[in-house]
Amino acid sequence: MTTTTTKHYSQQQQQQLAAQPIGHWARTAADLVISGLRTALAEENLTQPHWWTLNHVAGAPDRWTRPALTAKLAPYDDQHTDFEAVYADLTARGWLTETADRLTLTEAGEAGRLRARDRNAEVHARIRNGIDDAAYAATIDVLRRMVANLGGDGDLP
Q: How far apart are CA 52 and CA 32, in angstroms?
């Protein structure tokens, strides 16, 4: 696991923190998290939609058809992904097979998924550096509440 130094971080008083814009911090955090994960996945020549596909198919072998999986994943996609191209790429790599319209990972696909998972775990470890479980959970809960307060769904689908 790669350890990095925390950059530009100083302790601030609660009053100072409470006056800061949540939108700035939420967007900055989201941008950096997504960038870090996308960079880690790119080391396996994967995109996030590749990763989502691998995980969904691994989690429910022989359940997913292309249309059903595309319908499930498309709402999370901000890259205008051609999911048919993702499935074709994973099939061409020998990571995904299709029998009776159902998608299944191959041994090579599972190995690739596990390598990508380990790379993502390194990013998550960097994200959580210096943040205990209680603080992390409180942060997630506050963000969930903000989403719900603004009319969004505060629960994961």
A: 19
